[in-house]
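Service request form, structural biology core

Requester: graduate student, group of Dr. S.
Request type: structure prediction, single chain
Budget code: on file
Notes: please return the result as structure tokens.

Sequence provided:
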Amino acid sequence: EPVTNGQAFITNATGRYARFPYLLENIDAHLAFDNTKIDIDYVKGTGSGGAVAARSSTSLRPRASGRARD
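Core staff response, request fulfilled:
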């Protein structure tokens, strides 16, 4: 099985998450990943009316389907 690992820096992105149906803008995030998990070091974005949403230190483990679960 190939070994996969790396990191992603996201800046000034716009998006939405299925469990949080509001659009977020100005998203900044840092993710680290390998074959077994995705670590969200931080993610911060601006929502409706200028509200700030932020989260840090979260790990997601992939399901057999390839989609992440929290």
